[in-house]
Amino acid sequence: MSELETNLDLANNYLQRFKDKPTGHFIAGKMEVPAGAVTYTNTTPCDQSSLGEVVRGTAADIDRACNAAEAAFADWRDMPGAERKKLLHHFADKIVERAEEIALVEAMDCGQAIRFMKQAAVRGAANFRFFADKAPESRNGLALHQEEHTNFTLRTPIGPVGIITPWNTPFMLSTWKIAPALAAGCTIVHKPAELTPLSAMLLAEIAKDAGIPDGVWNTVNGFGEDAGKALTEHPAIKAVALVGETATGSHLMRQGADTLKRMHFELGGKNPVIVFDDADFDRALDAVVFMIYSLNGQRCTSSSRLLIQSGIKDKFIAALQERVANLRVGHPLDPQTEVGPLVHQGHFEKVMSYMDVAKEDGATILVGGTRREDLGNGNYVAPTLFTEANNSMRVAREEIFGPVLTTIEFTTEEQALEIANDSDYGLTAYIWTESNGRAMRMARNIETGMLWVNSENNRNLPSPFGGIKMSGIGRDGGDYSFDFYMETKNVCIAHGTHRVPVLGR
Ligand code: NAD
Q: Matching NCBIfam families, A to Z (predicted)?
């Protein structure tokens, strides 16, 4: 039996229960399929076959979940931080126990290759452990001294919050958003992406199993326009954290206006990787390939625009061409696979439409540009490399969100900066140069929330993660997450020495 066949067997065993009966919601500690619920079919991008029916949540379901989160809030808020820490570590242990199941279910549901997904549980657990350790200090504030007064700040959890997640790496992103909310003392209502609901249900099961009190964690499945919308409009919900498309961020802003929701947005990107003539060629090449073709290019921080300096352009593109043509596209459960199928047929068609856009714009399709017909009915795109592009082309301006790289030549540092910044987006940038001075100048002037110098995207949980411009509002990571999920109160204490103003004496 090949490793693929073994993985398929295991995956089918784990997936069978989702096929046997509809997947519903997790509300107030109970798994439920509401009476008369409408369902939709969840398919796998490997071959479009069904992974089972999923309940399309309604405003009434959201209402029950929000009320449960509200009812559970006071006790969770008042639980000592050390106890929340223990519970969240216990939760992380339980994630690790189910690592194999999480990896296989996730890969079949969203099409990400198992070589990346097998770390999903470990990374998800790490997110929980990091914020668990911070739970006891979450209320800490500042002391701000004046001559005759002392101010101090303290923080309290904002209340029940909504967490809305996308389909690209659903498990990882759910843990990344939920862990700080719970550590801060907020209760949550999670609305996972409709295209990839399964790992969110595993998380909900683990929450119950780990002893997270009923109502602290609620999950409602369904679509953005009904369940998602109702969540953002619900008066019990004090803040909403969204990871998704830029257009969705705009919808949420409008939907949350009447209840003045605090919003945190992690949105799209068209991230430049700038490779200068003096770069370490081989390391830069590895990173450029990794940062657009790993995770099927369905990654917010993917470097989808390569800005390449004229001196090394021909050599770099030739090396890139060879690498991209060599990428192993295949079934996500095959350990050899580097690029799997795109999450859904609709998304696959969107990505494929950019092949025509590139031709119309006048770019060259050096590698790929086609569907991988040989791989059957799945959403398999041949990894694609566009060259001879310029920054005004749609393939350089729009987020394609697939294994597709657009290459643009530049000559000077100033020009590289101008092209990099000429974008509606501002999530992250990557630069490759041996010059510290240039790295510092770019760091100062680049219009993004993050910059990696001589590195691919490297995870550091205390660091701020997030974008500017149309890529988002707010930062995740470390204490930045607590700032979002908590209110800061200032307390000012007089020393008894200052002159109180006197009126009407
Ligand atoms: P999407 O915006 O279509 O959906 C994200 C979530 O929002 C889903 O759960 C969806 O149901 C919900 N939603 C949609 N409309 C809604 C509405 N009106 N009200 C409430 N909820 C609504 O995004 P997607 O296609 O699932 O994910 C891909 C996008 O996510 C890409 O643009 C990608 O760049 C972005 N992303 C960003 C980051 C980041 O950190 N910046 C990370 C991962 C993905």
A: HpaE (TIGR02299)
How close is the Cα of 192 to the center of ligand 1, in Å?
A: 10
Distance of CA 262 to the CA centre of its chain: 19
Chain segment 456-501, per-residue pLDDT in tens: 999 999 999 999 999 999 999 999 999 999 999 999 999 999 999 9
Burial category of 499 from C-beta neighbours within 10 Å (exposed 0-12, middle 13-18, buried 19 and up): exposed
Which residue shows structure tokens 């679509």? Answer: 223
Instruction: Give Cβ neighbours of residue 324 (< 8 Å, ≥ 6 apart).
Output: 289, 293, 367, 368, 383, 384, 385, 405
Average pLDDT, stretch 220-237? 98
For atom 1 of ligand 1, which residue has the closest CA? 244
- Residue 202 Cα to ligand 1 middle (Å): 20
245 is catalytic: no
Catalytic residue among 106, 266, 338, 456: 266
Cα angle 151-154-159, degrees, rounded to a multiple of 5:
145
- Is residue 401 domain-shared with residue 261, that is, in the same domain? no
Residue 2 lies in a domain: no
Give the count of beta carbons closer than 10 Å to the beta carbon of residue 421.
15
> Quick one: tokens of 92?
């992380």
Q: Is 196 close to ligand 1, i.e. is its CB under 6 Å away?
A: no
Query: Is the CB of 474 inside a 6 Å radius of any atom of ligand 1?
Result: no
Q: Is 252 in the pocket of ligand 1 (CB under 6 A)?
A: yes
**Cα 87-131-227 angle, rounded to 5 deg:** 85
Q: Does residue 500 lie in a domain region?
A: no
Secondary structure class of 356 (helix, strand, coil): helix
Q: What is the pLDDT of residues 193-205, one digit of tens each?
A: 999 999 999 999 9
Q: Is the minimum distance from the CB of 53 to ligand 1 under 6 angstroms?
A: no
161 in helix, strand or coil?
strand
Which atom of ligand 1 has the smallest separation from the CA of 166? 26
Range of the domain at 396: 272-453
- Select from 83, 88, 160, 157 the least CA-distant residue to 124: 88
C-alpha–C-alpha distance, residues 134 and 155, integer Å: 13
Residues 421 and 348 in one domain: yes
CB of 251 closer than 6 angstroms to any ligand 1 atom? yes
